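Reviewers of the previous submission asked for a worked example of the structure-prediction workflow described in the proposal, so we include one complete record here. The input consisted solely of the amino acid sequence. No template or homolog information was supplied to the procedure at any stage.
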Amino acid sequence: MSYTSYHDKRAAERVRAYEPTHYTVEGTGEEQGVITNLSAKGCFIQPGVGHAERNRLISVRVYLPLSEKEPARPVVLQGKVAYYLPRVGIGVHFETLTDEQREGLRRLVEYYRTASERRA
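From that input alone, the workflow returned the following C-alpha cells.
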C-alpha cells in the first residue's frame, strides 16, 4: 500500500483566504462563516455547524468577480460536504459549477494568491 498525503490528492491550487459567507447544509438552516481556504474545486469554512454529514449537499454564497469589467457579485455555489471537523469547520467540494462560476473562482483564487505573495 502506498502512502499519498492529503495535500498530494488535491487537484487544484489552494490559497489562504478570508471571505465571509453564508451557507446552508442540507437539513439545516442558514449559517454564517468565513472561507479560510479556497480553490477552484472547493473551500474550507469556519466555524462549522453543530453537525454535518459527509456527502450532504451544501450551498455556499460567495462574492465572485465573474468578469474583469464588473464588480464581484453574490453567487450561490452548490457542492457536497467533503469532511467535517466538529467545532472547527467544513470542507466543501464544489459540484455542477457553470463556466462563469469556475472563471470567477479562478479569479478569486488568483486574487488571494497574489495578495499572499505581496505580504511575503
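Residues 1-9 have pLDDT under 50 and may be disordered. We consider this example representative of the routine output the project will generate in years two and three.
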